[in-house]
Amino acid sequence: MESQQNNLIKSLRIQPLIIVIRLEHNFFNLSKKKENLLSKIEKLSNFGIKNIEIGWDPNPEWVDLILEIKKRFKSINIGVASISSRQSLESILSLDVNYSMSQFFNKEIHIQAIEYNQLVIPGISNIENFKEAIDLGYKIVKIFPASKLGINFINELKDFKKKDIFFIGAGGIKSKNLKKFLKSGYDALVIGRELRNQTPDKDLKIWLKDY
């Protein structure tokens, strides 16, 4: 897990942003939805986005979808969002993804992930879970929901930490606030539903010019 964490940190220092795309309702029942997803990823890639997470789905076809995306978009660092159950964890074992994330801290899932040599970044919303994540060997954590927990929470975590931790902020972050959050102590940020249709808006296009 150490090398996986180091590689992700290296990637996010180059561009401290991850775009999350969650599959639409009835995604696997309509072929047009898959075409729309691939088109969306292609547009993000053309705008220079380097890190994209795809939401996990229990449909058996989901694994093949991720494999296809990885094969088609080799320049993008593809990850998986919402790994919060044994089923979701086991479904990513064959995918060789560089990283995935959980919405909330689940010690049992994270211990299992470490045994499987899978980097499942824990979602943290309180200092107790933060301490547990550090004890498990995590040096990357996701603060969720960052927009509600605010800057004071990350400062509290930074006061406590005994070693360098890489903080990813997620939840309710808008593209117009990227600079503010990064200046306030976050090392990288995740944008999902707040980015309409997962298409770069004016603020994100301006921000991307620096990366």
UniProtKB/TrEMBL annotation:
Family annotation (Gene3D superfamilies): Aldolase class I
Biological pathway: Carbohydrate acid metabolism
Source organism superkingdom: Bacteria
UniProt keyword Lyase present: yes
Pfam families reported for this sequence: Aldolase
Signal peptide start and end residues: none
UniProt keyword annotations, A-Z: Carbohydrate metabolism, Lyase
EC annotation from Swiss-Prot or TrEMBL: 4.1.2.14, 4.1.3.16
One MF annotation (Gene Ontology) recorded for this entry: 2-dehydro-3-deoxy-phosphogluconate aldolase activity
Keyword hit for Zinc: no
Leading EC class: lyase
Family statement: Belongs to the KHG/KDPG aldolase family.
Subunit note: Homotrimer.
Protein name, entry field: 4-Hydroxy-2-oxoglutarate aldolase
